[in-house]
Amino acid sequence: MSGTNRIDELRLGLATTQERIDHACQQAGRSSNDVTVVVVTKTYPVSDVEILQELGVTDVGENKDQEAGPKRAQMTHPGLRWHAVGQVQSNKAKSVAQWADVVHSVDRVGLVQAFDRVAASSPIQAFVQVSLDGDPARGGCVIPELAVIAEAVARSSTLSLVGVMAVAPLEMEPSRAFADLWAASQGLQGDFPQAAWISAGMTQDFEAAIAAGATHVRIGSAILGNRA
Ligand SMILES: *Cc1c(COP(=O)(O)O)cnc(C)c1O
Question: 202 in ligand 1 pocket by Cβ < 6 Å?
Answer without folding.
Answer: yes
